[in-house]
């Protein structure tokens, strides 16, 4: 659930569905195809790509504000599975489509996001 609006707030339900995840060598291959300038991850790390569906629904008929899915203030982050510390964010070209853009109530958008996680972390956590 998110609340939007500066004067009168409207409450919206969001549903986030992970469609596919790709990690390690395959993720790097897809990132290289998406952007030849994408660099290898830091030593001991690997990339995780997630294909996500983001749905946005208003709770009332008057809830008509669109949601700008992209950067601040709400962002996708990866947390270490062991202690939930946040991994550093990475800025890379992802396979098309990237998960970004304006989402109107009743609509959904699908796209890719990328994270760099420790190779030894068998259960990283993605949060929004």
What features would you describe in this structure?
The protein has 128 residues and is mainly β. The chain is built from 1 helix and 8 strands. It has one helix at 25-34, and strands spanning 2-4, 10-23, 45-58, 67-69, 77-79, 101-103, 107-118, 125-127.
What descriptive keywords fit this protein?
mainly beta; four-stranded antiparallel beta sheet; 1 helix
Task: Kindly summarize this structure in a few lines.
The chain contains 1 helix and 8 strands, in the order ββαββββββ. By secondary structure, it is mainly beta. Strands 1-2-3-7 form a 4-stranded antiparallel beta sheet.
Strand content: 35-45%
Order of SSEs: EEHEEEEEE
Rg from Cα: 16 Å
Task: Based on Cα principal axes, name the global outline.
Answer: elongated
The main pleated sheet reads as: 4 strands, antiparallel
Number of helices: 1
Q: Give the total of beta strands.
A: 8
User: Strand order, biggest sheet?
Assistant: 1-2-3-7
- State the low-pLDDT regions, or none: none
């Amino acid at each position: 659930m998110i609340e939007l609006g500066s004067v009168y707030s409207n409450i919206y339900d969001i549903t986030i569905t992970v469609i596919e995840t790709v990690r390690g060598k395959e993720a790097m291959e897809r990132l290289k195809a998406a952007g030849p300038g994408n660099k290898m991850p830091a030593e001991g790390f690997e990339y995780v790509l997630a294909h996500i569906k983001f749905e946005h629904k208003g709770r009332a008929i008057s809830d008509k504000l669109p949601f700008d899915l992209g950067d601040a203030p709400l962002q996708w982050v990866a947390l270490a599975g062991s202690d939930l510390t946040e991994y550093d964010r990475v800025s890379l070209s992802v396979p098309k489509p990237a998960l970004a853009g304006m989402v109107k109530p009743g609509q959904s958008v699908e796209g890719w996001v990328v994270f760099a996680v420790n190779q030894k972390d068998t259960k990283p956590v993605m949060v929004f």
